[in-house]
Structure formats: structure tokens, C-alpha cells
């Protein structure tokens, strides 16, 4: 339980860091977020560590019922929360028989395919060993619901497929998207396409096992101490750089003692 709590806290801090880096310390932020932004600015701001092996989680859109522009917010949310290479791209329709090879063709470490297959009764198929999932928008609208429901249902089922595939199968909290859902209308009970924080925490631990390495955010000061900070770009960063890299004013002196032989 302690591990889950810690991981949830880490995901929350990562998300807040992304928000404050993007928005700065100005308007649009709560008092807590502004305080965090000021603290980050004091230590040179938040920077992202270069990642030579980011991997790729792809949402491959092969359906035309819902416009791709109505899916970007959900994909962007997951990308921001997890600091991972999560993308939305166009592709060809797949079946359970072809999804594995299509994932490899997309050069994705894991993929969720969005299709419109009226012959497929399932809303979702997941193959953990194949690292793919299929979300079928035709099945999500099979109950004849109004067209506006298709957008919300597809976004929610995308999140569910992502979580199942990336190791966030269940939540310790009731009343969220990871509940047991067997009919498309049950998705309408949830207000937004957002997984609970404990599911995101599980996913953040699982993604590296899939070959998808999250980007790490740190203050410029911490990056200097760890040795991977880029050259400073402003006065605050230059001050931090000089403080971290300066020689000590009273360096340690080691003298040989003949009596001790060392």
C-alpha cells in the first residue's frame, strides 16, 4: 500500500511539474501550483532529461466515425501525466489475426487500434502477450445511442484499453472507468475519460517493462548535481551552475604520515 501511495504521489508531482513548466508561475494556476512554480524557478526551473530509449505507445486510428481531433485531448492527457512517448497516428483496420504484425509495422512497443468493425461484437479485445488491444467503435454504438455518445465512449474505452494493456487493470477505488463494464451504455455513467491516480501509478511502473521509458523531470539544480544539466540559459541557472561546479573554498588536504606509512 505504501508503494502505491508513493507512486501515486510521484505521478501527481510529475503532472504538476508539467503544468507549471508549460504555464509558468503566472495566472491560471492555484495558490499551491503557483508556490510550486516559484520554488521550481528558484532552482532554475524544471527541465527534462534526454532519453535515448523512449519507446513508443501508439493509438492507431483506423475508424472514421469519430474525428481524430476528438481523440487528441485524451492521448495528450496520458502523455502529460506519464511523461511517455504516447502518440495518436493514422493506420489501417486490423483484426485479432493481424494486430500483432500491424503493431510491429507501426514500430510501436505497444498499440491500441481503433476500428469500426460491425462484424466484431466486442467493444474491446486485449492481448497482453501480443502487446496490442483493439477498440471497436461500432460495438460502442451498437445500442443505437445518439451519435454524440460515440465520441465520449470511444475516448473512455481508449483509456480502459490503454490501462489493461499497460498493467493498470484495476483500481482500489470504486466508481471509475476501471470498473467492470460489459455494455456500452455503462460508459455513460462516467463524466470523463480519465483513469484514477492509482491506475496511472501502476502504468508508470509497467511502461518500462514494455520498453517505453518515461521522461524524467527535475530542477536545474538537481540536474547539475547529477551531471546531466545542459549549459545555463539565464542568470538563475548560471548562478546554480557556478555554485555546483565551483571548487571548494577550503579543499581537503591529505598529507603523508611517515610514521603510519600512509
Class derived from helix and strand content: alpha/beta
Query: How many structural domains does the protein architecture include?
Result: 2
CATH class of the largest domain: Alpha Beta
The coarse silhouette is elongated
Instruction: Tell me the span between the first and last alpha carbons.
Output: 51 Å
CATH topology of the largest domain: Collagenase (Catalytic Domain)
Number of strands: 7
Q: Would you tell me the overall average pLDDT?
A: 87
Roughly how much helix do the residues carry, as a percent range?
A: 25-40%
Q: What is the count of DSSP helices, taking H or I runs of 4+ residues?
A: 9
Main sheet overview? 5 strands, mixed
Relative strand content: 5-15%
Q: Low-confidence spans: pLDDT under 50, at least 5 residues?
A: 1-10, 16-26
CATH superfamily of the largest domain: Collagenase (Catalytic Domain)
Summarize the structure.
With 262 residues, this protein is α/β, with parallel strands linked by helices.
Secondary structure blueprint with pairings:
Elements: H1 2-23, H2 31-42, E1 46-48, E2 57-61, H3 72-82, E3 86-90, H4 99-105, E4 110-115, E5 124-127, E6 132-136, H5 137-140, H6 148-165, H7 197-206, E7 217-219, H8 220-226, H9 235-245
Parallel strand pairs: 2-3, 2-4, 4-6
Antiparallel strand pairs: 1-7, 5-6
Helix pairs in contact: 1-2, 1-7, 8-9
Salient structural properties:
alpha/beta, Collagenase (Catalytic Domain), 5-stranded mixed β-sheet, two-stranded antiparallel sheet, 9 helices, disordered N terminus
Amino acid at each position: 500500500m505504501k508503494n502505491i501511495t508513493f507512486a501515486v504521489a510521484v505521478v501527481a508531482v510529475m503532472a504538476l511539474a508539467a503544468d507549471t513548466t508549460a504555464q509558468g508561475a503566472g495566472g491560471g494556476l492555484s495558490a499551491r501550483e503557483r508556490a510550486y512554480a516559484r520554488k521550481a524557478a528558484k532552482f532554475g526551473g524544471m527541465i527534462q532529461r534526454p532519453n535515448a530509449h523512449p519507446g513508443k505507445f501508439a493509438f492507431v486510428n483506423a475508424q472514421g466515425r469519430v474525428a481524430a481531433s476528438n481523440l487528441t485531448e485524451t492521448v495528450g492527457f496520458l502523455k502529460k501525466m506519464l511523461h511517455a512517448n504516447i502518440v495518436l497516428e493514422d493506420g489501417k483496420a486490423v483484426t485479432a489475426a493481424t494486430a500483432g504484425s500491424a503493431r510491429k509495422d507501426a514500430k510501436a512497443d505497444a498499440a491500441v487500434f481503433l476500428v469500426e468493425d460491425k462484424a466484431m461484437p466486442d467493444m474491446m479485445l486485449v492481448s497482453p502477450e501480443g502487446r496490442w488491444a483493439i477498440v471497436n467503435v461500432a460495438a460502442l454504438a451498437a445500442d443505437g445511442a445518439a451519435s454524440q455518445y460515440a465520441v465520449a465512449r470511444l475516448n473512455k474505452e481508449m483509456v480502459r484499453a490503454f490501462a489493461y494493456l499497460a498493467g493498470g487493470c484495476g483500481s482500489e477505488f470504486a466508481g471509475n472507468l476501471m470498473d467492470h463494464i460489459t455494455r456500452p451504455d455503462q460508459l455513460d455513467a462516467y463524466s470523463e475519460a480519465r483513469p484514477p491516480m492509482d491506475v496511472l501509478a501502476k502504468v508508470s511502473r509497467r511502461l518500462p517493462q514494455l520498453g517505453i521509458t518515461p521522461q524524467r523531470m527535475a530542477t536545474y539544480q538537481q540536474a547539475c548535481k547529477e551531471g546531466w544539466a545542459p549549459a545555463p540559459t539565464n542568470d538563475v541557472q548560471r548562478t546554480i551552475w557556478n555554485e555546483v561546479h565551483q571548487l571548494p573554498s577550503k579543499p581537503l588536504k591529505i598529507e603523508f604520515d611517515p610514521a603510519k606509512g600512509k
